[in-house]
Every structure is written in structure tokens, then in C-alpha cells.
Design a protein that fits this description.
This protein has 158 residues and is α/β, with parallel strands linked by helices. The protein has one domain: 3-Layer(aba) Sandwich (Rossmann fold), CATH 3.40.50. 39% of the residues lie in helices and 15% in strands. It contains five helices and six strands. It has a four-stranded parallel beta sheet with strand order 1-2-3-6, sandwiched between helices. Helix 4 links the parallel strand 2 and strand 3.
């Protein structure tokens, strides 16, 4: 079975080191980070960011919102969640506050960003799944379970 191709949605400034840990697990593919100098150019206009999101989300199998301390309030995370739903992408969240960044250690648990949305499919309200890996070994909990979490998100979108 091939590895799922993922689009990650997250708060870059706060969580990039934790996100990189997940990228390096090797369990899923895709979602290469944008180069900082490219991002600086893109973020000058909303249309530049929207075009980048559209291009990079288009052929992904699933969207994973990596939830850190301040993720729920981020403009572009909200946009990515809304756009993923519009495109029919399976979507779910993982709290990443217990991944210990070399720079910051563990963080505080953030709010569920899905609480701000009403997702529905065929008239049925759907609440995307959110996982909170165990604090004692968040890294291995994510690594061991991310594929089954992706499968559950796909079932939820049917």
C-alpha cells in the first residue's frame, strides 16, 4: 500500500519544529515546506497565499490540521480547513503540544480549530476527528496511529 499524500495545516511560527518531526516520521508523504524567502513573497497578498494553498492541496489525499497552542486562531489555518472541506478532502486534527521541540520542549494544548466551523455533508453535520496523543510518548503515538487516523477521516467523508 502506498503512503498517503498529506497537506498539513499549522501555525508556522509556533509549531514548525514539531511539524518537521511528523514529516520526518516517514509514514506519510507530501507537503514539502515552502522556502522562507518564497513564503515572504507569497504572503504579501491574500491571492498569493490562496493560490499556493490551492496548488499544494489539490492532489493531496487528506488534510491534517496539526494543532498547537495558537493554531485555532490562525487566518490561513481557517482558510485551509474551509477549502479542504469544499474540495471534499478528508480532514482531521492532531494535537501536537506534547511533541518536544528541541528549542521549546512541550507546549500548551491549543483549542480545537474545528469548533469554529459547521461542516456538513448531505445534510448531516460532521465534526472532524481530533486526536490527542498520549503525553508520555506523543511521537510514537502519532507515528503508530497516523495511518489509521487517516483511514478514519476518509470513512468520515464518505
Amino acid at each position: 500500500m502506498s503512503k498517503p499524500d498529506v497537506f498539513y495545516s499549522f501555525h508556522f511560527d509556533n509549531d514548525v519544529m514539531r511539524v518537521q518531526m511528523i514529516r520526518n516520521m516517514g509514514v506519510v508523504t507530501g507537503d514539502e515546506p515552502v522556502e522562507p524567502n518564497v513564503w515572504e513573497t507569497l504572503k504579501k497578498t491574500d491571492s498569493g497565499v490562496e493560490a499556493w494553498i490551492e496548488k499544494n492541496m489539490k492532489n493531496k489525499d487528506v488534510v491534517i490540521v496539526l494543532i498547537g497552542a495558537a493554531t485555532a486562531g490562525r487566518k490561513w489555518v481557517k482558510y485551509e480547513m474551509k477549502r479542504a472541506w469544499e474540495l471534499g478532502k478528508p480532514i482531521f486534527g492532531i494535537h501536537i503540544h506534547n511533541l518536544k521541540s528541541m528549542n521549546d520542549g512541550a507546549s500548551t494544548k491549543g483549542s480545537n480549530p474545528f469548533d469554529a466551523f459547521n461542516f456538513s455533508h448531505n445534510g448531516v453535520v460532521i465534526k472532524p476527528l481530533v486526536y490527542d496523543p498520549k503525553s508520555s510518548d506523543a511521537y510514537n503515538d502519532i507515528k503508530d496511529n497516523i495511518e489509521s487516523w487517516i483511514a478514519a477521516a476518509k470513512r468520515q467523508r464518505i
